[in-house]
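Margin note from the TA: students keep mixing up input and output lines. Inputs are the sequences; the output is the structure of the whole complex. Example:
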Amino acid sequence: MAMQFYASPEQIMRDRSEYARKGIARGRSVVVLTYAGGVLFVAENLSTTLHKVSEIYDRIGFAAVGRYNEFENLRNAGVRMADLRGYSYDRRDVTGRALASAYAQTLGAIFSEQGKPYEVEICVAEVGATPEHDELYRLTYDGSVQDEPGFMAMGGQAEAIAGVLRAEHSESHTLGEALKLAVKALSSVGGEGGAARTLAPEQLEVAVLERARPGRKFRRVVGAALAALVSPAKAEPAKAAAPKSEAPKPAPETDTPAAE
Amino acid sequence: MNADLAPHATTIVAISTDEGVVMAGDRRATMGNLIASRDIEKVHPADPYSLIGIAGTAGVGIELMRLFQVELQHYEKIEGAMLSLDGKANRLATMIRQNLGAAMQGLAVIPLFAGFDLDAKTPGKVGRIFSFDIAGGLYEEHGGYDAIGSGSLFAKSSLKKRYKRGLSIAEASQLAVEALYDAADDDTATGGPDVIRKIFPVVMTATAEGTQRLTDEETAALAEVVIAARAQQPGA
């Protein structure tokens, strides 16, 4: 008969944490930061269809790093919860705080009760009526939740990226300034021998929660509008496409379930 | 049957053009011989590219519309893409079929659905109109216009004489308000333009730019054109 070795609970939890951290650190990073007009999400993502950033509800956005199937699962649950609440009560009664708390419960339960923790880190962001009311919540694999002060980075080398954001972030930035800072932060790591890289607009997934927009405030910034914001000098003036609908394209075959 | 049980909403018209569709509804809700509401809104955006108007039991209709809006938005967020216009119409037909039991007991609701078809191949076929029956039957209207509700007979007769292919959105909006005027003229359950209280029909459009509601000033101007013309030639 196989012998069951004793492992202390501390050891089990440490192993799980390490496993989850390793999985998350392998992925490309995402930054979320507030600016004068709302909240900006910037993810390093080569796919135009498998999103790391998405809309949850009118004022609430979602960003994630780690395993795609796991955070997609969480995103679906969040959209379902938000839509159900908004339908049962009122659209104003759907809040980022409630959503973050539900995610914390789910992630916490998975971490302590299941064999394998989710290898994900997510951000729930809510745009408020004024910049002081913007909220960013960071949720980690073990179900802990933190209220972040205006900016956050997740994924591989998050500390170094957050360092760049911390030094320059300001709530009074315009969208262009905030995006430039986000790109600078993301590209500050991962080059040859720890040097900076250059990130092209095609490598970025960008979305905003626009305070001034009526109704659903989530908008993806794509194509010419994105190129113009990233490098205003060479791009021709691009108009912000109003009700944007993306033509669904077949997913590239190289995409694996685990985010790179 | 059961007309006094709960408020009823009445006439909705929709007209398709080469640029999209126009949908308009009067503002009256009735309960038997009483006016339950003078300013009810029966035409709403279902999502960024389609419109829904309701006739029949107001409470059931508004609930149906709300659920339909949530379903479309939910699908869009989960899948990352909008349903096709036909997909939306089919979903609405299923929802109406589920109300069949209540409809047989007198709480019937019939919507009119119209929208801008983002997948349309031919330029002139972007505006599409769908009508329904209480059993969940779905019928696309190829004639260019349709109306539902108690005043629909008069509204359709009005449009039959005045509708022609190749209208602009502005012309179609004018025509829709005129058709509602004709419906209100002969149907007691349909409200006409209320110049005293400044209550005018709700007129909405769905085009390549998305859905849009005409402002109160714009609908008032459309109604005043009709009123001025009818003052010259009231009819009997």
